[in-house]
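Students often ask why inverse folding is considered easier than folding. One informal answer: many sequences map to the same fold, so there is more than one right answer. In these notes we will look at a single instance of the problem. The structure comes first.
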């Protein structure tokens, strides 16, 4: 393109540009927008020799400027505006510090004040769990956090409470994020890389739901977030995003893994959900969430050990040489011979993590662990490497670098034997250390996880029955048994066409066998759960453990779930509640005891109704309710009812109100007897029967029948929980194949369930199990439970193949 310079055109554009160059304090966002507009205009011209410095170009620019007549406040930010917003926000900004066990800062983030009486917003990941937290204002004032007023894992938000005393706090106004416009100018505040009270301008470039895996596997938020075009660094998390009015539009939460100039914030309207329905936890109790049970475990040499969902984890370097840290079990160790085992996973092979045994509680012990892709057995007899002896270091083909590994050690009087994933890899003579304790160890900075820690005289898995082993072995021919050889490879090569067909046929045969065995494994496991559930529900009603019922349902979803861990966690929760109830309701009056239990769960321990993920399947699993302190009405009710049963609070029962399960409480006697209802989803709000009926009417538009105010049987509660899960899988997640396990269990405990039999028949047809589908349809035609069109059902049955 040739440029024909026109003096008037050149000066016209330069004059326009000089408007901004003459005011260098302005952000030249407008210039970029005008450049793009001019480019679009030029590309539309018919004349390929169009001169961008001509009078025509100057006229085009003037036309664009006249048409837009922009509001300067939405096009660029002047330093004066930034200074004003900074002056407005600074008194409300805090640096949030998570304090480690050694009193040192373990993590830093940002936060901001939202109430004069001491409420401060930040991210949940900033404060973590089981750690003291402090905040510092820009003027140097420091306050300890006395309570977590609200928290939500889904939104990664936390609302902290401090006691400002006589100090006056300046809150920011939480704005309306529903009115955000794409391209709106914003200012962010935070502590990037620990540099507290920093300010940066930016733009809301979009409001979007991130694609799965954008942040990381299982970590990407499932709700729309504010996309920010502004620098985001470590330490910005929890900081506010302000509009030009000084209103909070969002809370900085994520930054892009590749570029620092792209971040994401939780919208202010999502923050309001926490403010409307807080779930307070005093700091003394918050510091116990996610911690190890001190009666079961003793940390040695630091390491930052935590436990959640039956998984023990550590991500801090230990205080010992080489970052060594050990965690000793309080369980009694049998006399030799004995065995100890654990499942472990490392995120970094440069570190190490595994088993400890024969420990003196300090520096002396054995360690059996993976490190650098190899397996080591080491005898530690002091504080440094000069007193350590690597007894064995070897490659283990059975070791999985990417996943979980099962480590097992057998200790005898003079020998030590080790297995990795069921394969024996070492056996050696060494009797240097005996007696003592057993436990876990980790080295260096690796993040390590452990589960299914076991101690016993013999932890070997039961071998396959001989007849089954013989039957399965016949499926494998000489080729599979002996592997490949040069002679066999030569034969295959000479007869490639025939060999290929035979090899492919054998591969398909073995693949089909593997698929069949996996299906058999699932069926056997499911039948085991069904049998245990049936035994539970066949007990007298007063003896049925509802938490155990819920735990069996959870087992269907997660065969690897550590049920013993959750039983222990629930038992500990009950003991804490027992002390609280006894202190706050010493007279033993049922209503006062129930109120005390309500306060313990919903004001002291952080349990709450799910704010945003009501239909997430985790809300229907009692183990996840314990993990997250979040659930739906029926699972929160199960926790409450079973705790009341074990605490011997009389008159508590499940009330199966349609649309919202509640807890009933009958108290008093004679003419003074009264039944009230507890809405556990709304933090334990107590109400009369008429108010409960009105709540149902407001929810469903119909008056509930009298029967729903009567105590529900444990079997009916289990059925309702299972129906929730079936509905989630079939209707909400559109994954009907995952509903089969729940349907099988539901029908096993309530065989007359017509709707569920029909659903199972459909799923069986889809799975090509025509025989099973016909069995369900025949049962339905014979028993004819209400709610189905039997003429069409008969037609459907008759249309199935193989009649």
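Output (designed amino acids):
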């Amino acid at each position: 393109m040739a440029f024909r310079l026109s003096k008037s055109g050149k000066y016209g554009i330069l004059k326009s540009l000089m408007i901004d160059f003459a005011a260098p304090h302005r952000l030249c966002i407008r210039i970029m927008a005008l450049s793009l507009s001019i480019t679009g205009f030029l590309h539309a011209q018919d004349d390929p020799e169009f001169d961008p410095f001509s009078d025509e170009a100057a006229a085009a620019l003037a036309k664009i400027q006249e048409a837009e007549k922009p509001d300067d406040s939405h096009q660029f930010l002047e330093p004066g505006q930034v200074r004003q917003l900074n002056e407005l926000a600074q008194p409300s900004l805090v640096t949030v510090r998570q304090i480690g066990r050694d009193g040192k800062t373990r993590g830093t983030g940002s936060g901001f004040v939202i109430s004069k009486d001491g409420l401060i917003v930040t991210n949940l990941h900033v404060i973590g769990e089981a750690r003291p937290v402090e905040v510092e204002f820009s003027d140097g004032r420091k306050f300890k956090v006395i309570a977590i007023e609200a928290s939500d894992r889904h939104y990664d938000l936390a609302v902290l409470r401090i006691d400002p005393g006589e100090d006056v706090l300046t809150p920011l106004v939480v704005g309306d994020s529903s009115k955000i416009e794409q391209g709106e100018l914003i200012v962010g505040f935070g502590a990037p890389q620990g540099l507290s009270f920093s300010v940066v301008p930016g733009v809301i470039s979009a409001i979007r739901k991130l694609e799965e895996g954008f942040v990381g596997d299982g970590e990407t938020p499932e709700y729309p977030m504010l996309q920010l075009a502004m620098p985001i660094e470590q330490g910005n998390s929890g900081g506010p995003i302000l509009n030009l009015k000084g209103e909070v539009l969002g809370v900085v939460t994520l930054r892009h893994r590749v570029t620092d100039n792209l971040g994401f914030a939780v919208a202010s309207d999502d923050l309001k959900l926490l403010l409307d329905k807080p779930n307070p936890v005093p700091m003394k109790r918050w510091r116990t969430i996610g911690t190890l049970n001190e009666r079961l475990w003793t940390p040695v040499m630091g390491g930052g050990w935590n436990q959640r969902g039956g998984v023990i984890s550590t991500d801090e370097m230990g205080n010992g040489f080489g970052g060594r840290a050990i965690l000793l079990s309080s369980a009694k160790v049998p006399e030799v011979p004995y065995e100890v085992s654990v499942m472990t996973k490392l995120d970094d092979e440069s570190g190490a993590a595994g088993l400890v045994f024969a420990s003196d509680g300090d520096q002396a012990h054995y360690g059996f662990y993976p490190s650098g892709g190899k397996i080591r057995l080491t005898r530690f007899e002091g504080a440094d490497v000069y007193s350590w002896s690597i007894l064995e270091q070897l490659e283990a083909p059975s070791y999985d670098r990417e996943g979980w590994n099962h480590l097992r050690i057998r200790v005898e009087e003079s020998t030590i034997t080790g297995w990795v994933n069921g394969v024996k890899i070492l056996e050696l003579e060494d009797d240097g250390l005996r007696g003592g304790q057993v436990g876990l160890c980790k080295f260096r900075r690796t993040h390590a996880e452990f589960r299914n820690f076991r101690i016993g005289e013999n932890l070997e898995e039961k071998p396959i029955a001989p007849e089954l082993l013989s039957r399965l072995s016949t499926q494998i021919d000489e080729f599979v048994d002996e592997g490949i050889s040069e002679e066999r490879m030569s034969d295959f090569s000479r007869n490639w066409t025939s060999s290929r067909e035979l090899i492919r046929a054998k591969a398909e045969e073995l693949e089909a066998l593997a698929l069949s065995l996996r299906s058999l494994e699932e069926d056997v496991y499911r039948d085991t759960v069904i049998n245990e559930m049936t035994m539970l529900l066949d007990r007298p009603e007063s003896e049925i453990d509802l938490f155990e019922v819920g735990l069996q349902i959870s087992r269907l979803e997660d065969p690897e779930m550590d049920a013993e861990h959750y039983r222990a966690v629930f038992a500990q929760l009950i003991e804490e509640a027992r002390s609280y109830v006894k202190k706050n309701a010493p007279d033993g009056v049922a209503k006062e005891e129930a109120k005390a239990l309500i306060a313990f769960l919903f004001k002291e321990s952080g349990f709450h109704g799910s704010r945003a993920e009501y239909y997430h399947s985790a809300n229907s699993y009692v183990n996840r309710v314990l993990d997250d302190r979040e659930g739906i009405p029926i699972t929160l009710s199960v926790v409450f009812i079973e705790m009341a049963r074990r605490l011997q609070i009389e008159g508590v029962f499940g009330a199966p109100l349609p649309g919202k399960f509640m807890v009933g409480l009958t108290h008093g006697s004679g003419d003074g007897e009264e039944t009230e209802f507890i809405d556990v989803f709304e933090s334990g709000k107590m109400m009369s029967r008429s108010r409960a009926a009105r709540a149902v009417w407001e929810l469903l538009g119909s008056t509930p029948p009298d029967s729903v105010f009567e105590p529900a049987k444990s079997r009916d509660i289990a059925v309702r929980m299972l129906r929730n899960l079936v509905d989630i899988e079939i209707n909400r997640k559109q994954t009907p194949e995952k509903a089969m396990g729940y349907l099988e269990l539901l029908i096993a405990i309530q065989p007359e369930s017509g709707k569920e039999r029909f659903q199972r028949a459909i799923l069986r047809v889809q799975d090509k199990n025509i025989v099973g589908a016909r069995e369900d349809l025949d049962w339905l035609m014979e028993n004819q439970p209400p709610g189905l069109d039997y003429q069409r059902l008969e037609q459907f049955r008759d249309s199935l193949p193989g009649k």
